[in-house]
Design brief:
The chain is an alpha/beta fold. The chain has a domain of about 180 residues: NAD(P)-binding Rossmann-like Domain (Rossmann fold, 3-Layer(aba) Sandwich). Helix content is about 45%, strand content about 15%. Strands 3-2-1-4-5-6-8 form a seven-stranded parallel sheet, sandwiched between helices. Strands 7-9 form a two-stranded parallel sheet. Helix 4 links the parallel strand 4 and strand 5. The longest helix has 17 residues. The relative contact order is 0.14. The model has no long low-confidence stretch (mean pLDDT about 95). NADP nicotinamide-adenine-dinucleotide phosphate binds next to helix 1 and strand 5.
């Protein structure tokens, strides 16, 4: 039995779709806070159960009989996420899981401009200390983080960003899902850490040039201070910890913290990661 936690999010959805495409839904349990939203997955062959990282009893029930547990990282301030991920890892160990898989983030160090990297650093350390074989996937920035900016740029001809020259090795949710499917379904992967980054890295200036070609109109990258993004996020009514987290993430991207490329997606998923041209064409 494979259990996928946080199955109702975008990554969980992409992974469930990938498993359906591979004909591998049977023997997979989807754990989510809102099982009613995943009722259609039962018709595809999955089991669907309720689980909340903040509710250890729900995790024990959801992970019962699991051989492999995938813990997709959750949401919230660092201290909440660190405690919730620990709950999940400990429940998976108590359930007798042979391997625990965790989706971390690229560059998970306290020195990162991305403040939430600390939650990944701490969670990786907790997982490694448990004595259960683990597999860690360090996801680079998802294209979806900038999809709204790209869509606006297509309409306005301007692509504003803090740090337009810095490269980022973006990945699509489908790339991560393909890599996760490989890690969950194939033998091996014990005590491995993979860099789930694109095979190519692109600056905002590169993306503006590509978007100009794909959209058939001139799009120009424009350097803007990070504070302008923060003001925008606050104006949208986001809570302080989200503004700080997302602003820090944009700062880390703009500073080149996510520039390292990798071929781990292709190795694990069996197909290349999504190029910026392909992503922009789809967008
Ligand atoms: N590398 C990147 O660029 C990047 C960007 C954004 C996020 N992330 C990380 O990657 C994770 C997955 O990304 P995503 O795009 O799928 O995010 P998402 O669509 O926001 O999904 C996050 C999911 O986390 C689960 N979750 C949150 N709190 C939970 C709790 N208390 N107990 C159980 N599950 C909880 C929920 O699953 P259910 O709905 O099933 O309950 C939620 O749908 C994120 O949560 C975040 O940690 C990485």
């Amino acid at each position: 039995m494979i259990v996928i936690s946080a199955a109702g999010g975008k990554l969980g959805t992409a992974l469930a779709d990938e498993l359906v495409n591979r004909g591998k839904a049977t023997g997979v349990r989807l754990a989510t806070r809102a099982p009613e939203k995943l009722a259609h997955r039962a018709e595809q062959g999955f089991e669907v159960v309720r689980a909340d990282y903040g509710d250890p009893a729900s995790l024990s029930a959801a992970y019962a009989g699991a051989d492999i547990v995938l813990v997709i990282s959750g949401e919230g301030p660092n201290e909440v996420r660190i405690a919730q991920h620990r709950n999940a890892f400990e429940a998976a160990k108590a359930a007798g899981a042979r391997r625990i898989v965790y989706t971390s983030a690229a560059n998970p160090t306290s020195a990162s401009r991305f403040g939430w990297a600390k939650a990944h650093e701490a969670s990786e350390a907790t997982l490694k200390s448990l004595g259960v074989p683990y597999t860690i996937l360090r996801d680079n920035s998802y294209y979806s983080n900038i999809s709204a900016l790209l869509a606006q740029a297509k309409a306005s001809g301007t692509l504003p960003f803090p740090g337009i020259a810095a490269k980022v090795a973006y990945v699509d949710h489908a790339d991560v899902a393909g890599a996760l499917a490989g890690v969950l379904l194939d033998q091996g992967h014990a005590n491995e850490t993979y860099e789930i980054s694109g095979a190519g890295a692109y600056s905002i200036t590169d993306l503006a040039a590509l978007l100009s070609e794909v959209a058939g109109r001139e799009v120009t990258a424009v350097e803007v201070p990070l504070s302008a993004f923060e003001e925008n996020f606050r104006a949208m009514g986001w809570p302080d910890f989200v503004v700080e987290g997302v602003a820090g993430f944009f700062a880390a991207m703009g500073a080149g913290e996510y520039a390292s490329t990798s071929h781990d997606v292709e190795r694990l998923a069996g197909s290349p990661s999504t190029s910026a041209r392909d992503y922009l064409t789809r967008l």
